[in-house]
Design goal:
mainly alpha; Recoverin, domain 1; 2 domains; two-stranded antiparallel sheet; 8 helices; 4 strands
Length: about 220
């Protein structure tokens, strides 16, 4: 069964390895796999943070230009593995060179398949849909209300910027996370879970590492 699909629903990897074999670290995703048994796994919030930091450009919320080829190969290799169901992924020392014109065509098709907001990039929100991200953490990457204009976004920002300092600090972001999860999932989660999700979300979008989200950083989380 193929668990990869082009939709807003997070897919699940069904990865299998025969007894006694080892799933080799041929790409970044393989480190999140149970390498000794057939498993269906979810990517935890912290693992998702690691993925964004590895593939995304520093200070940006999309897969870096210099990483897009590797990301495509790594992601499609896992897809091929799930679809073909071989006993183990074979490691190759050198990846095949792709002609520039052919690669650009392939890249364009790949991005168009997963680029939900049609901005020509694979951003963090796209990644959350491409990967089997843990629920309900994945709901934080679904836009909870339509922001039809910059004015609508400013209203949202002001709603959570309780101390009016022009930033969203941890406690303010925690309130946003709580409201978003309740709206999207109708669940009342434990305080420790809310704090963990808030911490990870802050680390993902706090591009200048000052411990809070500025207007532009909060915009990226909601655009």
């Amino acid at each position: 069964m193929n668990f990869f699909r082009k939709s807003v629903t997070a897919p699940i990897f069904l990865l299998q390895a025969t007894k006694g074999t080892e799933l080799k670290d041929i790409n970044f995703f393989s480190r999140f796999v149970n390498k000794t048994a057939a498993v269906i796994f979810e990517i935890s919030p912290m693992q998702f943070l690691d993925i964004t930091r590895y593939y995304c450009a520093s200070g940006y919320d999309f897969v870096a230009n210099e990483k897009i080829e590797q990301f495509m190969q790594d992601y499609e290799q896992l897809r091929d593995y799930e679809e073909c169901n071989p006993p183990v992924i074979e490691e190759t020392d050198v990846k095949p060179k792709v002609a520039k014109a052919r690669f650009e065509e392939k890249k364009k098709a790949f991005i168009e398949s997963y680029d939900m907001n049609r901005d020509g990039k694979i951003d963090i929100r796209d990644l959350s849909r491409m990967l089997p991200l843990q629920q309900p953490f994945n709901q934080l990457f679904y836009i909870r209300k339509a922001l039809k204009s910059s004015f609508d976004f400013l209203k949202l920002f002001i709603e959570y910027d309780k101390n009016c300092d022009g930033n969203i600090d941890f406690q303010e972001l925690k309130a946003y996370v709580t409201d978003t999860l309740r709206l999207n999932t109708l669940l009342n989660l434990e305080e420790s879970t809310i704090c963990h999700y808030t911490s990870v979300l802050l680390k993902i979008y706090d591009f200048n590492n000052d411990g809070m989200l500025h207007l532009s950083e909060f915009w990226r989380q909601n655009s």
